[in-house]
Design brief:
alpha+beta, 5-stranded mixed beta sheet, 130 residues, disordered N terminus
Length: 130
């Protein structure tokens, strides 16, 4: 296995497995994945997808237990503001300032597998929220 595929940190492996399951879930819903784990100067985007012409920035959260609440509680106001800035940089770099976009949140609860619970919130927040 290539070095970049291995990691000693179980949290990192759990996160990557959650992102893969979220990606498979979205593809099954008809989304087309444009980018994964986009690292920009100001932050990272988990997934960028196309949903019928709309650019969708997807924040994926993996939770091994129910102790921390649902998908929306996983993305607080500060995280939403950061995602908005990173998304703006992404759109600018691609000269896509005229494209419609939205923010989805996908929560994978339990161990990423066939039996994990998936909570998907399309248009989970917008940029007018404070």
């Amino acid at each position: 296995m290539p070095d970049h595929m291995q990691t000693a940190d179980p949290r990192h492996r759990f996160g990557k497995a959650s992102e893969l399951q979220a990606e498979e879930f979205l593809i099954a819903k008809g989304y087309r994945i444009l980018d994964r784990n986009v690292r920009l100067s100001i932050g990272e985007l988990d997934l960028v997808a196309d949903d019928q012409g709309v650019v969708v920035f997807v924040e994926v959260k993996g939770r091994s237990t129910e102790a921390f609440g649902g998908a929306l509680s996983a993305v607080d106001r500060r995280k939403r503001a950061k995602l908005a800035k990173v998304a703006a940089q992404y759109l600018s770099q691609r000269r896509w300032s005229d494209r419609l976009c939205r923010f989805d949140v996908v929560l994978i609860q339990g161990q990423p597998s066939v039996s994990a619970q998936i909570e998907h919130i399309p248009n989970a927040f917008d940029l007018t929220e404070s």
